[in-house]
Amino acid sequence: DNNTNNNKKLDLDVAFGLLHEVETKDLLNFTKNGNHNTINKEIKKYIGKNQLENGGQLPKFTKLPSTILQTLDLKDLEEARKRHKSTISQFKETADKYVELPELSGWMEKKSAAGFRSWQKRWIIVRRTHILWSKQMMDTQNPLDPSQRKKFNNSMTLLTIKQIRPVSSKRKRKFDIITAAKTYHFKCKTSQQRDLWLNGLNLHLKVLADSMKFLRQSFIFKNE
Length: 224
Description:
Layout: H1 3-6, H2 12-15, E1 19-23, H3 24-31, H4 37-53, E2 61-65, H5 66-69, H6 75-95, E3 105-111, E4 119-127, E5 130-134, H7 146-149, E6 154-157, E7 161-166, E8 174-179, E9 183-187, H8 191-217
Antiparallel strand pairs: 1-2, 3-4, 3-9, 4-5, 5-6, 7-8, 8-9
């Protein structure tokens, strides 16, 4: 077995329903019908893009936006559509069992990674799958969109976080976020704000981890 098959890359766009994996052979058969010229063009564009990402080889599955998937009338995809609707319904029922996630946004200081490693004031928010920070107050409701993330100074995926720990200090305002690649240092205005972020981040991580586990078990991730 190929090790890359055993260690599939996590695809958040697929996991959260922005893209859907469809068998390429079904899509190619669909495009042979000349009655759907506009949609055929779009499908071929995505097949070509996926082929390029696959090293020039035609992929077994092609990722399509949900808007295109909804317009297709393929019998072979009917079961997939039903499964997707069922999965999303179950996911929403599961999500309702959780307490409402705390709103995490506000000004705090982040230690610079370069130069004299000084503390810099940053606007920091948590949205769905990401924590993002900027020099000015801004927001996004779709952190999975790279163009949205580019508006911020930087960001990190919550799934990369290994640990969130308080830092021992006199005023109890500091905490660290530890990833496999590096450690990020933050300083809040008050100890109460720090406790809010520590508890809130850990709750966001737990819900996201449970959500990903649910999605895997519901076959949104395909096993090859």
